[in-house]
Task: structure prediction
Amino acid sequence: MNPPLINLNGVSKNFRTADGSDRVVLEGVDFTLKEGEIVALLGKSGSGKSTLLRIMAGLLPADKGVTEYRGQQLFGPARGIAMVFQSFALFPWLTVQQNVELGLEAQGIPKTIRAQQAEAAIEMIGLSGFEGALPRELSGGMKQRVGIARAIVMKPDVLLMDEAFSALDVLTAETLRKDMLELWESKKTPMKGMLIVSHNIEEAVMMADRILIFSSDPGRVRVEIKVPLSRERSEDSPKVRALIDEVYTQMTFAPVPITGDQYAQAHQAYRLPEADISQMEGLLELLADDPFNGRADLPKLAEEAGLSDDDLFPVYEALRLLGLVHIEHGDIYLTRLGQQYCQADQAFRKRLFGQQLLTNVPLAARIHHSLMQEKSGEIRKEPFLNLLEEFLSAEEATQMLEVAVEWGRYGEMYEYNYHTGMLKLPEVE
Result:
């Protein structure tokens, strides 16, 4: 029996932050890519998906654990693994032909042979006639085709795709996904496995045999969903829609934060989503109005909102944290409080938001409680930053405090002076 193409066992990775502390990006990741399968990896921004791909490609060493390619431990780039990047990563001063030939040239392949192989890859990916064009003369979709051609010309066993379609418009991305699947099915390349990092749930369901959902802080595989469908898939079929709903349900899962006096313990279980008030209100109002009337299929709501899944997940998470929505089986519902919020005037909305904030967000409750205990009604932000920095980098702690400040100001639980860095209780009118 052949060994798996890629096998990860207990892989962990830390990064040193600017303040000298270590941030755990990946922890105890186990993963296997078998011959003949396409696997999609989904997760929130910053969950470590791209870092994991770079470890698999041999571009980045793991701090702990073992990374194997075809049963052999990987200590650097492997010839059988190629990668396609989100940013295209083309050299602007080189033609399409020259960009595609780069890897072959690095391997010392003679000029005539590499020219032939590059031309074949360019034709395979649908760019014949553009060999002499420079990247600035190409559309986004064509640039990504060059990136794919540059990868497949290396005749890899494994193709790693890091958000490869996310910089493209919807129609271009859909066309390129279909072309990649046709290339996979045609067996015109020696590719035996493909791993796709994506933030697009429909893309994952349409392409993959398995979908892995990554958790954050630190990144690890939280859920595996098998896709028991033939390669011929219609986005409108009931089975595909059911799978999309299942993935949405898993992606919008969030642990319930611990409440209590010790925020430090609560933080270890939950981190605030980076959602701003205007996005939260906009989504609530959209959900309350026709045609949804308080209940919506998450993919349809995302389409109506005109935002990507990546943009909407923090909003969903924030609204659920505050008790304004409920999410189940790929659908989102307004709770009784959410309905009250949508029907109320702005003053009542702020009061309700503030009450839910103190009930459900330990950091906000701690800030408010500390201000209530302070005779002056004012306190500097540093004690709260110091508390957060026990678990976060300085940058992450600052970002989290900013979210708590924005939410608290809207809920009129406290005010913040951006010039002095002082938090204070709101003045009673």
